[in-house]
Amino acid sequence: MENQRPTRLSTALMAIAVVIVVAAAVWQAPNANWNWALFAILLGFSAFSDIMSIETESRLKISGSFLALVLAIVFLGGTPAALIGIFAILVGWLRFREGLPDLLVNALTFMAIPLAVGVGFHEVISSAGITATDPAFFVLVFGAFALGIAMNFLMIGTYTCYLERSSFVEKVRTAMIPLLPSELAAALMAVGVAFLYVQIGLAGVAMFGIVLITFQYLLGALIKSQERARELEVRGKQLASFQVGMLSALLRTLDLRDQMTARHSAAVARYSRAIANRAGFSKQQEELVHIAALLHDIGKFILPDRILKANVPLTDEDWMLIRRHPQQGARVVSSLDGYGPVADIILAHHERIDGKGYPRGLEGDDIPELARIISVADTYDVMTARDSYRTPTSSYEAIQELRRVSGKQLDARFVEVFIELLEDQDVSFRHGEEADFERELSLEARIAETANPGVDSGRFQVAGVSVG
Ligand SMILES: [Fe+2]
């Protein structure tokens, strides 16, 4: 919702009001108590507090300068308090650079209120003969604070509602009532400092000022860090789901051309996770192997349909191209934040234990463990799946074949783990036919929701995930 801009007329009226208040302050100046030391301390505190004021999301600023204003009202009088008020506003302006109408309203508020309340306060105590040692004096200090805050809410609230064309009652409810507890605390503090000043003089006020400024600084830092943390969390989640979404879109595109890709990927992901689980890997490693398996053949998108469908004899050049799919896949995946480890696994999924694999001809333990797991699952699914371009073998025959190549092509340990697993499971697990890419992927999306893609560390991180 666009804020309304104040009209020229209302800006001019505010300027006139400021001039009137300045004239009134000058007229009231001789009645004030010009204690310059106290004035300087309160001025310094108020300006400092405004420089470090905390800006809330609803455009209102929270600052401790009101406390200084009330002390000035009580001990110095209307005109010095108004001077401190305008000074604080001008210092704050140096930081926030609000437009002229905002500046005028703030100036008006922070001069008119101290002046009016200050003059009123001193009228009351002098006519009632109250001195700073009477308890009634401190009740009046509290009253001055409350009156000041009420006028402050009224003036600033009316102005912002005028700009936003919003309801004043709503403004009071959403922006001001929540501030009441802290305002009450501030009012009680004002009474306390007033008492301290009456008892021990300037030192008490100075000491208190330092404590309060420190507190305000800490509070500001806390609010900022909370806001940052919230923002980072939201951005991290968006990024993670965006990345998973993009990868799955890529894989689906590949699946449009080669019908078996999505099912095969889902089956390999399911088998790989089960192997990792049974071999005693951590949950995090399970997630990692699952996502790497889902994406392991994503590099095949570089292949032309003729090769992808593989219904004609392949030439040597065709094979050269096919052998590039691990690098291509790793390249795409590694461009995403936090997917470096996924890319490393994809790159190595066609390596062989005996060093005769590709693309790097790694041997034995040089091949990442999770890539060795994927090789086992991949080999098995290609043999047993009905939609592959070769005649599918039975689970029993496939197990015989896995045993035959165990220790040469495939990691012997993971082959054994997988065979145990197959023997324990029912038929549907042994045949990856109804492995569903969407279902495996939704698992991934759930993970992405809680995943922190480790922007700085470049590591794949999954926080506190439990997969049921
Ligand atoms: Fe592959």
Overview of the structural elements:
The chain has 468 residues and is mainly alpha-helical. It folds into 2 domains: 8-235, no CATH class; 258-435, Orthogonal Bundle (Hypothetical protein af1432). The chain has helices at 8-28, 36-51, 65-75, 78-96, 100-128, 135-164, 168-176, 180-200, 202-257, 260-278, 283-294, 305-309, 316-322, 325-334, 340-347, 369-384, 395-405, 412-424, 427-430, 437-450, and strands spanning 54-55, 61-62, 451-452, 461-462. α3 runs antiparallel to α4 and α14 (325-334) runs antiparallel to α15. The protein is elongated, with a radius of gyration of 37 Å. Bound molecules: fe (ii) ion. Fe (ii) ion is lined by residues 296-297, 325, 349-350.
